[in-house]
Amino acid sequence: MGEQPIYTTRAHVFQIDPTTKKNWVPASKQAVTVSYFYDSTRNSYRIISVDGSKVIINSTITPNMTFTKTSQKFGQWADSRANTVFGLGFASEQQLAKFSEKFQEVKEAAKLARDKSQDKGETLSNHSQEESGRDTPSSNRASSINGTDDEKFLHVEPEEALLQTENEHLKSAIEQSNTSAKKWETELQTLRENNARLVDALQESSANVESWKKQLGACKEESDTLREKIAELEAQCNEANQEKQRNAQLSVRVQELEAELHDKEQELENLRKQAEIIPQLMAECESITTKLQTAESRNKELEGRVDGLQLDMDDSQQKQVNMKGELKKFMDMLDGKIDELHEFRQGLSKLGVDN
């Protein structure tokens, strides 16, 4: 399967300055992806981070590594193989705590993998020793079965060869143990140096924190001063804006007054033109008055005619009412005659039936 990611997060990556071994140097301009990888073929764990096409973290986790939280959102660990110290700045405390827990889990898994490999090596060595022990009694039995001295002498040489082989195995095991001891001493020395570097880095970071606190205090004071200046400038800007608004309102009012003045002048000009035609209008008014009087007299004559027509109309309506009454009486009489005729027909029909 190869390497597979088992946990992924985002953080700002830093490395210790290789010259001073104290200051942190940013390895990424922004937060990048940091992942734990597990290699099933080698049974190993690595922390890998890539910024674009550049690998900024490639750290194989060993049981001797330790992840240290130096602040609420910052943690670091030393990699003796890479000969550096990595630092991660997270966006929240929860992300830092999760990364630290995962580091501890991976560290324990790496320790178990190392112990299993060591147990497997010891089992293989014990198995080889048991096989060599089994070979020795078989040679002894062969020598005891053969009775002559020449045969016994012939069977002694393989036993000495076996002892030499065992001695060589022991020598190689001792050399390997010496090599491992030297390796562990080297790693121990490296860890001590890394611890010393970490202590120096921690002391420097503490000093940096104090200086940062002082700088933060100075920045706060400067920020307060700038805020006061900004407030004053905003107040001045507000006054200037109010003055601009007043000027704009006055300009609009002046334009409105100029427009009104222009309208009044236009009205005055129109009145002057109308004053010139007033005599003509007066003559027309007199002619209209005469025509109106004539129309009124004709109107009175027409009203008299209308009154007469109204009287004639009333008389005709009265006559119509009388005619309607007479017509109704005639219709009632006609209905009575029709009923009598109907009864007469019924009687005739009955007589016809009887006959």
Q: Please provide the count of β strands.
A: 8
Estimate the mean pLDDT confidence: 80
Rg measurement, Å: 63 Å
Low-pLDDT segments, ≥5 res: 133-157
Describe this structure in words.
Helix content is 73%, strand content 15%. The chain has 355 residues and is an alpha+beta fold. Strands 1, 2, 3, 4, 5, 6, 7 and 8 form an 8-stranded antiparallel β-sheet that branches. A hairpin with a 4-residue loop joins strand 3 (32-39) and strand 4. It is elongated, with a radius of gyration of 63 Å.
Brief write-up:
73% of the residues lie in helices and 15% in strands. It has helices at 93-145, 149-276, 278-354, and strands spanning 3-16, 24-26, 32-39, 44-51, 54-60, 68-69, 74-79, 84-89.
Topology:
Layout: E1 3-16, E2 24-26, E3 32-39, E4 44-51, E5 54-60, E6 68-69, E7 74-79, E8 84-89, H1 93-145, H2 149-276, H3 278-354
Antiparallel strand pairs: 1-2, 1-3, 1-8, 3-4, 4-5, 6-7, 7-8
Helix pairs in contact: 1-2
What would the keywords be for this entry?
single chain; 355 residues; alpha+beta; eight-stranded antiparallel beta sheet; 73% helix; 15% strand
